[in-house]
Specification:
Layout (H helix, E strand, L loop, with lengths): L4 H27 L3 E6 L2 H4 L1 H16 L3 E6 L2 H10 L6 E2 L2 E2 L3 H25 L3 E6 L6 E5 L9 E6 L5 H5 L2 E6 L1 E3 L5 E3 L2 H12 L3 E6 L17 E3 H9 L7 H13 L4 E6 L5 H7 L6 E4 L9
Helix pairs in contact: 4-5, 7-9, 8-9
Length: about 300
Amino acid sequence: MHLTESDNSNTENYALRVSVLSEALPYIQKFAGKRIVIKYGGAAMAHKDLQTAVFRDIALLASVGVQPVVVHGGGPEINQWLKRLNIKAEFRDGLRVTDAQTMDVVEMVLIGRVNKQIVSGLNKLGALAIGLSGIDGGLIQARPFGEGSHGFVGEVTRVNPEVLQPLLNKGYVPVISSVAATSDGKSHNINADTVAGELAASMGAEKLILLTDTPGILKDKEDPSTLIRQLTLSEARKLIEQGIVKEGMTPKTECCIRALAQGISAAHIIDGRVPHALLLEVFTNAGIGTMVIGRGNKSCQS
């Protein structure tokens, strides 16, 4: 029997797929039963093809025994609804100034729309997703940021991970919007990166992964070839002090630092514009973004 050129091509394709699966096996075994907190946002949320790729990655993680927990924001859609309702969007120090009217829109968009869209997308792929906010079950306790200087903007004071335990034990994928209540029951809008970091630390997650619109931490933000593949906690702090990490990357890096300081193994900042970025980071030898590790961790991408 003679193989045609087409048959040879198909065989090569199948061989490549098998090779990829073989490379992934040690990582699948390593992370089975482990929790990975994923902050979902940016271009990966805005573009349908990237959105589908992220949902497939999360569904696959859940299917092979990993316990993913998704935290999301939704700034662009909030802006769209504010514009529709003729409510002026205002930002100060990189944070959305949130008066009572804006907070109503934030709750509607994050809890009522974006959260359920993510849940629906994951469920279509066979994942058992369930939507929550920080308010549900007292999952996240908040206090006003800067003594209320930004209106209903909050910061995390406490996380109750026991709320998620029964869901994870039953194989559900929690999808959490970054809205939480203060002690007097008032809803506050919290930065989703911050929520993801605090949640990862409180749960003892194996990894925190932040999907962003950059390749990772760059020495020169205009040059993707200057990507820093791996950093220690102290090195990450120095980059902030030196002004190499600045602007929008600062809160993301600080979020990683805080989570690592509280005991998680590794934090990753990866490019959500790359299809299947999550699987590339978790299940391959090289990874694609920046990994920040604690001092005692081994030097390895995953």
